[in-house]
Design a protein that fits this description.
5-stranded antiparallel beta sheet, alpha+beta, 315 residues, YcaO domain-containing protein, Alpha-Beta Plaits, 12 strands, 7 helices, 2 domains
Length: 315
């Protein structure tokens, strides 16, 4: 069994970079429309939704640490780095108020971004958000909540192992890839990490993390609904995953059919109270790359990097 602390509250922050940011940001938010307008108005000014104007000269965080996860957003990344002013939205809320609290905060940031012509970013994941749209009402973990991006393939040329097309049987040709989530902590869960992955298996490893995160989050909210009195959580180190968990990560509204459809299992290890390692089950005799390359995982995990359904419309 694994035991980790379950915080009573968590904090999430978003920032909007712009050329001009007025002092009266609350006035702009009172003009918000859409499904979160009433929530924004009701929480504004409380710890659950605070908004402040910050000049670049007085920041306690570094805008240059914010990155664009997609190449097409590099221009917006540069605009975020070079902006003179920021509107920072902070939500400190009970974990029993999740995911609504973080959705309201992001909806507020997206409204400010549209009003100011700015660039929004998630300060928890450290990523520039995709072109601003209205926050949809249904929570979907794949909507940039996890900081789940692939590293540069072949370690940006630093990997010395043979390329996959020259050594297709080199399952364990390298161990360059380490993947870690950034975002689960705002829901009261430890982050997840998988290490020693060979470059050709990075997408399979990423989808294992995504599926594990979705399953843990589903179980976590079920646990919170029972009103636990203690502030620690105990879970089984052996976690079975199924087709439904992979589909629920994407929120597609339809099942992502995987082959084979039977469940597979991961082994969790507590590295720190805030970080869990994800690995093959104890009864698997090979390496993590043998596991990722073999026939244990459903085939869909090797080729789905973006939502397999049509991109959802704004709510």
């Amino acid at each position: 069994m694994i035991v980790f602390p379950a915080p009573a509250t968590t904090t999430t922050r978003f920032a909007v970079a712009a050329e001009h940011v007025p002092h009266d940001l609350t006035g702009l938010l009172h003009d918000a429309s859409g499904p979160y307008a009433a929530h924004i108005a009701g929480r504004l000014g409380s710890p659950q939704l605070e908004v402040v104007r910050e000049d670049v000269a007085c920041l306690r965080w570094d805008p240059r640490g914010i990155r664009a996860p997609r190449p097409e957003d590099r221009r917006r990344e540069r605009a975020f780095h070079d902006a003179p002013k920021f509107a920072v939205v902070t939500a400190c809320a009970p974990i029993t108020d999740q995911p609504r609290a973080v959705q309201v905060a992001r909806a507020a940031a997206l409204h400010l971004s549209a009003a100011l012509g700015g660039v929004p970013a998630d300060l928890v994941t450290g990523h520039v958000l995709a072109a601003p749209t209205e926050e949809r009402t249904r929570f979907v973990l794949a909507d940039e909540w996890l900081g789940d991006v692939l590293p540069p393939f072949r370690a940006n040329g630093r990997c010395t192992a043979a390329a996959p097309d020259r050594d297709p049987e080199g399952v364990n040709g390298c161990s360059c890839v380490r993947l870690r989530t950034r975002g689960l902590r705002r829901f009261g869960l430890p982050e997840l990490q998988i290490t020693d992955v060979a470059c050709p298996h990075d997408l399979a490893a990423l989808n294992v993390l995504r599926t594990t995160a979705r399953r843990l989050l589903t179980d976590h909210w079920s646990w919170l609904s029972t009103g636990p009195a203690d502030r620690t959580r105990e879970i089984d180190a052996d976690l079975p995953l199924a087709e439904a968990d992979f589909s629920d990560f994407w929120g597609t509204g339809r099942r992502v059919h995987l082959t084979p459809p039977n469940p597979f299992q991961v082994r969790l290890t507590l590295l720190t109270p805030l970080l869990l390692a994800v690995a093959p089950p104890d009864d698997f005799t090979g390496t993590v790359n043998d596991w990722l390359y073999g026939d244990t995982l459903p085939l869909g995990m090797y080729d789905v990097i973006h939502s397999p359904a049509t991109a959802p419309q704004a709510a």
